[in-house]
Amino acid sequence: MTTPFLAFTRDVAPSMVDCELTHLARTPIDVTRARIQHAGYERLLATLGCTVRRIAPAPAFPDSVFIEDTAVVFDEVAVVTRPGADSRRGEVMAVEAALAEVRPVVRITAPATLDGGDVLVVGRRVFIGQTARTNAEGIAQLGALLAPHGYMVEGVTVTGCLHLKTAATAVDDATVLCNPDWVDPAAFTPLRTIAVHPDEPMGANVLRIGNQLLYDEAYPRTRARLEDHGYTPHLVDASELAKAEGAVTCCSLILRTLAPPIGR
Ligand code: CIR
After folding, report:
1. Is 117 in the pocket of ligand 1 (CB under 6 A)?
2. Which of 33, 53, 32 is nearest to 42 (CA)?
3. In angstroms, what is the span from residue 66 Cα to ligand 1's centroid?
């Protein structure tokens, strides 16, 4: 049966305990629990209309579960990134091979760096975080690759967190959930913004699957704000993944399922 979406995921590596950390102190990660949480996340993706395809595990890459950073996928093209952290560069090969089955693939190349977690797509606008992971060359390359397809890229200043999507994600094509301490809401004008609850600075990361939202249950006060605006997110427990500075968007690449060309 064809589902509206395809979700690529990657298993939690046992080496996740040695993940990159930038803004968080290292605390013990229970890999078994992380795997259980990840499996729950995948089940919810399936419930929300995704065919889940697990890419082969990458035990040598501690952060490989955070597959979002390795590619940015549009209906027209998949852009394989060059992650900003040296330890993550080798994650992209297997992802590229998997994406090549469903989209034309292009690549970000040195000296550019770009993490998928820095790329927020809202309609034809592509906001790109200027962070330690994504450099000016990365923004310029992505802009050049996307211009023929009618997308406009906009660099966004991000301070105090890892990625743009730690600070802001879209809940629909007109609305952004954001932490105004980390990104200026004016960057998204004329889109409406909803601020996270001040006690939940990490609460701005929500995963959109069509009209549905997948959200971390750890942020009830921000969830209440979403509910006040008429959204009803589906909840997961992602507490172990959060210890690795990951959040719900990081653990998948969501693609629309496109009709195959006539004759295939
Ligand atoms: C890293 O620092 O690269 C990982 N420990 C966390 C990556 C999270 N990815 C994301 O927000 N897109």
Report:
1. yes
2. 53
3. 6
Cα separation, 62 vs 58, whole angstroms: 8
Provide the token pair at 27.
Answer: 């605390």
The helix or strand, by DSSP H or E, that contains position 37, with its residue range, turns out to be helix 31-47
Give nearest CA residue, ligand 1 atom 7: 246
pLDDT per residue over 206-231, tens digit each? 999 999 999 999 999 999 999 999 99
> pLDDT of 26-63, one tens digit each?
999 999 999 999 999 999 999 999 999 999 999 999 99
Instruction: Let me know if domain 5-256 sits in CATH 3.75.10.10.
Output: yes
- For a mutational test of ligand 1's pocket, the pick from 10, 18, 63, 118, i.e. the residue with the most ligand atoms closer than 8 A to its C-beta, is 63
Domain-by-domain residue ranges, the chain? 5-256
Token pair recorded at residue 78: 């998949």
Q: Which atom of ligand 1 is nearest to the CA of 244?
A: 5
Residue partners of 145: CB distance under 8 A and separation at least 6: 77, 79, 106, 108
> Is the omega angle on the peptide bond into residue 148 within 30 degrees of 0, that is, cis?
no
